[in-house]
UniProtKB/TrEMBL annotation, chain A:
<protein>
    <recommendedName>
        <fullName>adenine phosphoribosyltransferase</fullName>
        <ecNumber>2.4.2.7</ecNumber>
    </recommendedName>
</protein>
<keyword id="KW-0328">Glycosyltransferase</keyword>
<dbReference type="GO" id="GO:0006168">
    <property type="term" value="P:adenine salvage"/>
</dbReference>
<dbReference type="InterPro" id="IPR000836">
    <property type="entry name" value="PRTase_dom"/>
</dbReference>
<keyword id="KW-0660">Purine salvage</keyword>
<dbReference type="GO" id="GO:0003999">
    <property type="term" value="F:adenine phosphoribosyltransferase activity"/>
</dbReference>
<dbReference type="Pfam" id="PF00156">
    <property type="entry name" value="Pribosyltran"/>
</dbReference>
<keyword id="KW-0963">Cytoplasm</keyword>
<dbReference type="InterPro" id="IPR005764">
    <property type="entry name" value="Ade_phspho_trans"/>
</dbReference>
Automatic annotation (TrEMBL), chain B:
<feature type="domain" description="Phosphoribosyltransferase">
    <location>
        <begin position="49"/>
        <end position="176"/>
    </location>
</feature>
<dbReference type="InterPro" id="IPR029057">
    <property type="entry name" value="PRTase-like"/>
</dbReference>
<comment type="similarity">
    <text>Belongs to the purine/pyrimidine phosphoribosyltransferase family.</text>
</comment>
<dbReference type="GO" id="GO:0003999">
    <property type="term" value="F:adenine phosphoribosyltransferase activity"/>
</dbReference>
<comment type="subunit">
    <text>Homodimer.</text>
</comment>
<dbReference type="InterPro" id="IPR000836">
    <property type="entry name" value="PRTase_dom"/>
</dbReference>
<dbReference type="GO" id="GO:0005829">
    <property type="term" value="C:cytosol"/>
</dbReference>
<dbReference type="Pfam" id="PF00156">
    <property type="entry name" value="Pribosyltran"/>
</dbReference>
<dbReference type="GO" id="GO:0006168">
    <property type="term" value="P:adenine salvage"/>
</dbReference>
Length: 182, 192
């Protein structure tokens, strides 16, 4: 489900502001760089507005953002829709008691952590990141939230790489994205 | 004659503002993190309090909206939680200042000294233009080493750093009031 199908005129402006950096972090990867989007106040505002328009009035009580680019988009959305913001972080960054969720990388594993007590049973959650690739990180994020009894309403990303089929790894949870990169 | 500028918001235009007390009380202290003796100022509890988080952003926005600031530079990673909302509200661009090897394009780097060893902050080439007026934002200032590196990055590309803004200011920052001559604006002192 992507906003570009709705032909919102703001989408084109957002897509053109994303810079593709070839061979980063390693050969063969076409890296989707959202920092150039952040340099255009109108396009950045449009990005946030599109998410806020979708989620306002849906009773979302928590926006969970994935370190570190999820921290750029998540808080403005949370503030606008009246939700709390919860950072989901790499290991040993959060100072208090945490729960951890491991996930598989191409080579090896990584781990996502959330503060105990930040999210409560019954909280309605939105997960935000800049991009979905294989969906491994988003899956770990959803697991963290569900483990503490929250309901994940949707995952929201600026960019999807559809060929990596991350959408299929979200345990049936809906995914909302603004632009696809093929 | 230049008016003396106090560092803390409570002495600089926001005397008695009840929002400051609520912001301070929303911050959690975690003892002995990341190591014994450090009383870590945890802003994640502030982010859980929608009103207090909104007030934090609003206070910065009210201060900076008429200062002609064209770029807000946020220090990874907690600066990312405050900077973008401020940038959006004042019509400025947001530039992330990151740890090494995170930014994908061509970068400039600035090394800075830690208690033990050194670290490095990076900024994308071309993100900031000569003559731009910049605000630097982070959640907390301790020794000022990271903020100093941030200021240097911006000045190296010809930007003017108007001010550095932090939610929390540790005692080591007091009496500095300025970093390399740049003014510092802080909302609250650390909790005990």
């Amino acid at each position: 489900m992507s906003a570009c199908k709705d032909q919102d005129p703001r989408i084109h402006g957002i897509k053109t502001k994303i810079r593709v950096v070839p061979n980063f972090p390693k050969p063969g990867i076409m890296f989707q760089d959202i920092t150039t989007l952040l340099l255009d106040p109108k396009a950045f505002k449009d990005t946030i507005d599109l998410f806020v328009e979708r989620y306002k009035g849906k009773n979302i009580s928590v926006v969970a953002g994935i370190e570190a680019r999820g921290f750029i988009f998540g808080p403005p959305i949370a503030l606008a829709i009246g939700a709390k913001f919860v950072p989901l972080r790499k290991p040993r960054k959060l100072p208090g008691k945490v729960i951890s969720e491991e996930y598989i990388l191409e080579y090896g594993r990584d781990c996502l952590e959330m503060h105990v007590g930040a999210v409560e049973p019954g909280d309605r959650a939105l997960v935000v990141d800049d991009l979905i690739a294989t969906g491994g990180t988003l899956c770990a994020a959803m697991n963290l939230l569900e483990r503490v009894g929250a309901e994940v309403v949707e995952c929201a990303c600026v960019i999807e790489l559809p060929e990596l089929k991350g959408r299929d790894r979200l345990n049936g949870k809906p995914l909302y994205i603004l632009v696809e990169y093929h | 004659m230049e008016k003396k500028r106090e560092m803390f918001a409570g002495e600089n235009g926001l005397q008695g503002d009840p929002r400051l007390k609520a912001i301070s009380e929303a911050i959690r202290v975690v003892p002995h993190f990341p190591k014994p003796g450090i009383m870590f100022q945890d802003i994640t509890t502030l982010l859980l309090d929608h009103k207090a988080f909104k007030d934090t952003v609003d206070i910065f926005v009210d201060r900076y909206r008429d200062m002609g600031i064209s770029v807000v530079a946020g220090v990874e990673a907690r600066g990312f939680m405050f900077g973008p909302s401020i940038a959006l509200a004042i019509g400025a661009k947001f530039v992330p200042l990151r740890k090494p090897k995170k930014l994908p394009g061509e970068v400039i780097s600035e090394a800075y000294v830690l208690e033990y060893g050194t670290d490095c902050l990076e900024m994308h080439v071309g993100a900031v233009q000569r003559g731009e007026r910049a605000l630097v934002i982070d959640d907390l200032i301790a020794t000022g080493g990271t903020l100093c590196a941030a200021i240097k990055l911006l000045e190296r590309v010809g930007a003017e750093v108007v001010e550095c803004a932090c939610v929390i200011g540790l005692p080591e920052a007091k009496g500095q009031c300025r970093l390399n001559g740049k003014p510092l604006y802080i909302l609250v002192e650390p909790r005990k």
